[in-house]
Amino acid sequence: MSDAPSASDSAVISLWTRLRYTPLRDVMRGDVSGRLDLKGKVVSANLPESLGKKVIELVKATRLTRLERTEVADELIAHFLDGLETGASPADLANAFGDVRRAGRLIRRAKKRLRPIWWQTLAYSVKAIGLLFALGLGLYLFTAASLFLSKPSPSIDYRLQINEVAMAVPVSDRAWPVYLNALLGMPEAPSHKGNSNREPRPGEPGWEITETYLMGQAERLVQIRQAASMPGFGFLPGYELTPQEQELWPTIEFSERDIEESGMYAILLPHLSELRKLARILQSDALRAAAEGDSETTLADIEAMLGITRHLRETPFIINDLVSLSTLQLAIDTTAILLARQPELFDDRQLSDMAHRFAPFDDAMMRVRFNGERLGFLDIVQRLYTDDGSGNGHLTADGVRLLRNLMGWSFDQGTSNDVLATLLSHGPLLRTVMVDRAELVEKHDHFMDAMDNYAATPPWQRQPSKSMEQIEQWFASPYLRIKYLPLVTLMPALTRAAQQSDRVIMQRDALLTAIALELYRRRNGDWPESLAELTPGLLPESPIDRFTGEPLLYTLVDDHPLLYARGADRDDVGGQDNPLSNQWTLEKSPPPSSRPPEGDWVLWPVPVEPFLDFTKAEPVDD
Amino acid sequence: MRVERELMRGAGPLAVLKLLENGEKYGYQLVESLAKQSDGVLAMGQSTLYPMLYNLEAKGLIRATWRESDSKRKRKYYCLTDRGHKKLIKDTQQWEALTAAMISLGVIAPSASVREALT
Asked: Which of A22, A320, A447, B50, CA to CA, is 20 to 30 A from A103?
């Protein structure tokens, strides 16, 4: 049996070969032309072998498309045939041809220029995309290398600066150990807040339990008052807990490593809630004592609340100042309630003394400070970035981890911001988008300076903070939020904090005015016609409405004084109280999109629920 | 004499355009004409000519057409386009200016006709 192909096999092979060398467009037309078969062309042209090789060698060197090669081959074959027809020898023609590789390169270049515009556009686009991709990949690799190969080098222990004041307090003058001693000896206070979100007061359901508790803690209350009267506080946040502190907070585990990794954002401030709790207990005790006609104890409790207020401000974090404002407000509320419902509890000396106790808690003392936040942010920065020695540096892998920890609330849930989650999980991308160290610090300084200026400006002259608006804009933009991620994430609502201090100061001013009014009534038998009659004898100056910058409004209604501010709408409606009016922004130009609540903010007399049992109260002689 | 590549790069395309001025020609014809009419000065191998032709075609200065010749073989004929004509005129003027400048500098000796015109 022969292995030679039969005639029909040859026909099939020939057809298959032709099909292989036929352009698709020809096949579509039903023409199996086989015109891409270069060797076939050379053979069928009867070219001498040396010239045929030259043609094949050249078209291969062009590295063009098969159609283009065929066209070049056709032309070269025609060229050599023309030469042979004129009598030139194959050797002469081959010699005259020139360098094949150079010709291939030049023909390729020229033929590519002949390609259609769409092809050239596509080719350039593909090249451009490829180039961009390569550049991006290179940048990514470079960024990844710089991210993972570098480490932050925190060199400043900002805890020392935060605790500078507390550390300067002599050990014997420190109140915290005394508070701590009292706290360790006190059982948990009963809590029956009910719907009013406050402790029960004399005459209210649950008061008996509170009263019993207070009576049982008389000794501890003496300790607390003693602590509150001490010159310094002396609590050092960010350092290892003492055994006594550990006993008070058994679930808190201090870790120096947490501080090293997360900086001051790992600092816990559990003492704040403890002091706030003590202030509430003091308030209950002041009301208890007042109900029993014990004005001296009442005064001592109020004074202790003021002492706690002062101690809380020893560490310059915003949260300290806000808790301090809340304890001041407790003291103001307690005094205002008693003054409204039980004015005769205090004699003139006590009232005057009380006014002098509250007087130092003015705007300058109680203004919310941003120093702690400044230092805390710088501490974070030195843990996010490298330090090039001139204030700049780039994000590090440790920094990305820290950011992830700080933002764990949104990243782990992974639903609120997928772009952010992706960038945070791919450090090099975040490193590319996020600002460098110098710019971040510069922006932060700029914002904090602006906020210091904002807080120092009287509220009636304040414009809405451009800085906070910008941060809100950054927060709304996916790109800018990531670019300024630490700023956007860690910047607290500073304007609100600043305004909170204004509200409390206004209440403190009103309380001092109410004390002066009461003293005036006692001396003159009636209320003054205007606040001007109080100054300067009973009041150094008229209190200011911090919404408008003008004096608070005063009138007599049914022979009783009414002291009020115009409220958020800046309109005087005769003292019609709207409790919402004091929750509005104190800025000069409130947001145009929303209308401030109408009505005034009545500061005196404060609304007092009928809770006090006065039966035990003893009248005080003038 | 062989012309250096840099000079050939400027002169070659103009020479090809000039050869096509009077009618279409195919590749081998151009090679032959260049060699004969320039006494071999502008002779160029196919490795130079064909890339040059493709470049001129890409620039729209010449147009190529495959056609059957008298010998019943297919050949690719090149002819000038309108743009090619304009380019030829412009480049010729530039070469004339260049030649005049070279003569005035003494780089090129003026031909008899030019000498006559100068005297």
From this structure: A22
